[in-house]
Hints:
Blueprint: H1 4-11, H2 15-22, H3 30-43, H4 49-56, E1 61-66, H5 72-87, E2 91-96, H6 101-112, E3 118-121, H7 128-131, E4 139-142, E5 152-156, H8 158-171, E6 177-180, H9 188-201, E7 209-210, H10 216-226, E8 235-237, H11 241-253, E9 263-267, H12 271-275, E10 279-282, H13 285-297, E11 303-306, E12 309-311
Parallel strand pairs: 1-2, 1-3, 3-4, 4-5, 5-11, 6-7, 6-8, 8-9, 9-10
Antiparallel strand pairs: 10-12
Amino acid sequence: MANIQDIARMAGVSVSTVSRVLNRHKYVSEAKRAAVQKVIDEMNYTPNRSAVDLIRGETKIIGAIIPYTNNQAFDQMLHGILNRSTEKDYSIIVLPSKYNPDKEIEYLSMLKNKLLDAMIITSRANPWEAIIPFAAFGSIVSCEYTEHPEIGCSYLDRYASYLEVFQLLKEKGHRRVAFTSARGSESNSTRQTMAAYEQVFGKPNPEYHELGCFSFEDGYRAGERLLGLNPRPTAIYANGDEVAGGIYKYARASGLSIPGDLAIIGQENQPIGVSLELSTVDHQLVKVGEQAFDLAMNKSREKVEMPYKLIHRSSI
């Protein structure tokens, strides 16, 4: 089997020239590139990728830690990451964590072992203090804001978006407002939601907060419990359009009109929200993912804030 030295000898060039051709280096004459490629094709030569990576000093592989791969919000971020990776000829390894802190550390160790060039963290279970040491071995980019200078981030001002939603509902005359979350107070998003609620309405009634909401089915369950309260809420802010769709389904099955009896607003502008005419907060997570990839590829520690949009439809 031919090796890189054989290819260089047969093409009449140096080993370093063959290496440049394999790594698509632009500073190679077309004549030499054609000569090397001709020999590679004739010998059916396949380079040792590990050796090429070692020469190049990078793998062109980026890891993406994602808690769940069947969640619309994380799927949108991943879609953005994959969009940009295809354009830039990078590979992405999807690393589902299920918010297991030990699994996250195991994945981050791939940076230390030079298996990845960079890591994108869409959401995390570990404190930053456990993550930051791995930044010495490769670029780490977060999809939430962090003040730590070692970590780049593509983020949006979630607190501002939550505040805008609650202020809008208050302006519409609602005072009994419920909301749903995926996780409890260990989640930064949940803490920000509760803080925004408190700023607009005062301390939330625990009965008006439904946890463990990830899917349409969870939304249906949340609607069943929340709309069975006395007094029941007149508005619900769901942590996703799938969840909002489940609430909508239960409300309509119970004979409630939307928005006359119940106002509903979701998140992330998903297809179900469009079809049901649900108002939503579009955090533009595809763009968040695209920006996160660019930061990771460029080994940047920049903090880039992405915009969000509040989309008004008939459900409020």
